[in-house]
Design brief:
The chain is mainly α. It is 48% helix and 11% strand. It has eleven helices and three strands. It has a three-stranded antiparallel β-sheet with strand order 1-2-3. β1 (35-37) and β2 (40-50) form a beta hairpin. The radius of gyration is 17 Å and the shape is globular.
Length: 204
């Protein structure tokens, strides 16, 4: 679950709290399908939320490439999450939850990830420099989105594709109201956007 959280947060360029909106039922549904776009297989990450201007719940769908250019296995880790939920016998509710279906405490996940960062720093200071105070300078709130966006720019991903991947932020800026752009809905509504959305995670 820790690995899935980190890969979803980074690949989807999400802020920490957004990842906890991943929905189990839809995750299992999409995991049971073979999703392919122009010969490229991918996985779908569905975030579920209720919006102030709507009565029904709708999904924010984010496709991720099975594997990034640097070797990040998004597909492997996203597909492991439904398996974990089946083992917990939980088919509905938040995907990042405990055995009772309650959302996992964000601070627990953060500390688990930062402990890994600390171990990486101690093992290979070329990856995380010795002068960096891991527990003070990193966190799940914004580090994954900031890092993903920076890496995408370093890999020459276009600003339009980066902005498209970060479209969730436009919804936040709109104060819970629908912004003047496509936001979230069913798979058929994002079909034409999938190639552009995949550029982001492919490049990481």
């Amino acid at each position: 679950m820790i690995g899935a959280y980190a890969l979803v947060a980074f690949g989807g360029s999400f802020r920490g709290h957004e990842v906890f909106l991943v929905d189990t039922f839809s995750l299992i549904k999409y995991a049971s399908q073979k999703l392919v776009e122009k010969g490229l297989e991918f996985v779908m990450v569905p975030l579920l939320g209720r919006y102030k201007t709507e009565n029904a719940e709708r999904y924010h769908l984010t496709p991720l490439a099975m594997r990034s250019a640097s070797g990040l296995e998004f597909g492997r880790w996203v597909s492991r999450l439904p398996d974990a939920k089946r083992m917990q016998q939980l088919m509905h509710g938040p995907a990042f939850s405990d055995g009772r279906g309650n959302v996992i405490e964000p601070r627990w996940i953060e500390m688990e990830i930062l402990d890994c960062f600390q171990a990486i720093q101690e093992k290979n200071s070329a990856i995380i420099k010795p002068g960096i105070q891991v527990y003070k300078e990193y966190g799940i709130s914004r580090s994954f989105r900031r890092g993903a966006t920076t890496e995408a720019r370093n890999q020459k991903v276009s600003e339009s594709d980066i902005n498209l991947m970060n479209r969730w932020r436009n919804f936040e800026k709109a104060g819970g109201k629908r912004p003047r752009m496509w936001m979230q809905d069913h798979y058929s509504d994002i079909a034409l956007l999938i190639p552009s959305l995949l550029h982001f995670s492919q490049a990481l």
